[in-house]
């Protein structure tokens, strides 16, 4: 059983969220907490960076924070509700940094089936699996 579980969610693989939450809850210690993380990588991709004003990014953060809060209330029992974090940066680096910073014991994350692009470059999930200091469960 894990006391500190991190769910990095990106709203891209929502069809996998029921499995992600169910797996996290099955592995959660009775006094454990489940934390949610969203990583906004909009400014990392330099070609699009000039299109995103600070105001636009701030508004997006507010919307995402509301969505994560609603998700937490709807799917995570109150006794297991942890932090909600919105960070900006490279997705896999940010997930790993947050896991280290908050002594996360397990990361449960959704991932799509690899295509030619991710096979060659590596997906966020595969990079998290390779470099995490804790257990990682990838849901497909």
TrEMBL record:
SUPFAM superfamilies: Adenine nucleotide alpha hydrolases-like (SSF52402). InterPro entries: Rossmann-like_a/b/a_fold, Universal_stress_UspA, UspA. It comes from the Bacteria. Residues 1-140 form the UspA domain. Belongs to the universal stress protein A family. This is Universal stress protein.
